[in-house]
Amino acid sequence: MQKFSDDKSWNLDSLNFQEKVIFSKMLLSRICTSIVSRCHNGLLCNSYCRFLTNISSEKKIDHESNNSNVTLTAHSSDEDNEWLWAYLRDHRNFSELTIEQRRRVVEIEVQTLRESGERVPDVIPNERWEELLNMPLVESRKTLYGYLFLREMYRKRRAAIVTQNNLRRTEAAKRREELLSQGKLPTNYPGYSTIFRHIGRQNEKYVREQLLLPSARLGDMIVIDCGFEQEHARKYHLLNLVDQVQYLFAEVNRYHSPSFVYLCNLSPEGQLQSEFDRRAPLENLCLQPTESSYLDVFPQEKLIYLSPDSDVEMTTYDHDAVYIIGGIVDVTGKKPLTIGKAKRDNIRHQRFPIDRYVKFGGGSGKTLTIDQVYNILMTLKHTGSWIEAFKFIPDRKVVERYSEKKQDKQVELEKFGRWTSLNVKH
Where is the SAM-dependent MTase TRM10-type domain (predicted)? Predict the structure, then answer.
């Protein structure tokens, strides 16, 4: 070791075999140390190490084999991976690569994340590749991987449910044939007859529609503003918005008088409309889609825009008002889009008194989905209790839920402080 560090005029030919081995280890160690220190992204570093191992194994095969075909294959693979070595070593921009090279980098990322235990899909849909190849940041692609993973798990779970239902229908058909062959009445209930019929999915849909129709006739409305379609940076945010609207319609049967839902500012040529048509047309849902603005459909004095950025705190549910929910999936919650639109349209705006009843965690955002806001409004409408309404905020976001007794005491202290001109704190 002293020979290599002090004497700089040495020659490789003058070294023996053991000294050459030591020199190779030192050189490889220095190269790996410099690479690791320069790679700030753990994903690229893992990919680089993996490729370093693969290429080293290829060189070992090339050294041990005397077959010229194996030698040519190893050298060609080295040439094909030169761009990858340069991309990892020089921290090149992802957008500077070609389409084929970007696709190769995405495949490496998916494989690396899967081996690390991250949530990535088994198969990336063809329509998602263009969006992935145009994302320059690794974190953005990881977010999309997680979303595709959840969609894939949902499809698998749905396929398992469909398979189970088909099996149940097959068994029910066999039993029906057995009962008919024995001269008995075919029924879903074994051993006896009944006057109650089986309630299927179509009957459940009919019941939900019957709950919403009286509210539509009485003018009890909730508006979802779909005019933020251009504000969504990513396409899967729009898909998530369609999911939230469908979840809203699926849970209206928990209330005896749910409010009818209007979808205003819905462009007939937009991506939201096409996504609804691809899944289930809006005609199958008991909703009212319209291209018109809510200002053209409802009186302006009845409209109240719900915005988390409003300085007016909502106290009770106004049964004569028409509440507007912004149809936007804003994960960060940093853009005051809803309050800006409410001020431009010159209509009232309010926010939920969430901080009075719920304490959020440090790493959780205060953004709520459309179905959660709808459930909060309907629970407040039927019960008048914010405590019951805010139970629809997921527990994963909440650190503590304040009780009504504690909140009433806080309100009394605030009133006493205003009456006495004292700043009372408890």
Answer: 208-400
CA separation for the pair 10, 183 (Å, rounded): 102
pLDDT on residue 48: 45
The structural domains of the chain, with segments of one domain joined by +, span: 2-148, 207-420
Residue 120: strand, helix, or coil: coil
Q: Which of 329, 229, 238 is nearest to 279 (CA)?
A: 238
Six-digit token pair at 181?
A: 């062959």
Token pair, residue 404, equals: 């009504």
Instruction: State the alpha helices, DSSP H only, in 189-286.
Output: 201-218, 235-250, 271-279
Q: What is the mean pLDDT of residues 107-132?
A: 86
Higher pLDDT, 35 or 64: 35
Q: Which residue has the tokens 């955002």?
A: 365
**Residue in this structure with the two tokens 């074994």, named with its chain if needed:** 190
Beta strand pairing call for 398-401 and 358-360: antiparallel
Burial group, residue 143, by CB count within 10 angstroms (0-12, 13-18, 19+): middle
pTM (2 decimals)? Answer: 0.55
Q: Rounded to whole angstroms, how far apart are CA atoms 105 and 44?
A: 9
Q: From the CB of residue 209, how many other CB atoms can be counted at a distance below 10 Å?
A: 15
Q: Count other C-beta atoms under 10 Å from residue 241's C-beta.
A: 23
Of 251, 277, 276, 381, whose CA–CA distance to 319 is shortest?
381
* Of 381, 378, 402, 413, residue with least CA distance to 392: 378
pLDDT at res. 58? 43
- Two tokens, residue 412: 């009394």
Q: Which strand (E) or helix (H) includes residue 413?
A: helix 404-420
Give residue for tokens 């969504």: 232
Alpha carbons 421 and 415: distance in angstroms, whole number: 10
Measured CA to CA in angstroms, residue 77 lies from 13, 47, 56 at distances of 29, 16, 11
Question: Which of these CATH numbers, 3.40.50.360, 3.40.1280.30, 3.40.50.300, 2.40.40.10, describes 207-420?
Answer: 3.40.1280.30
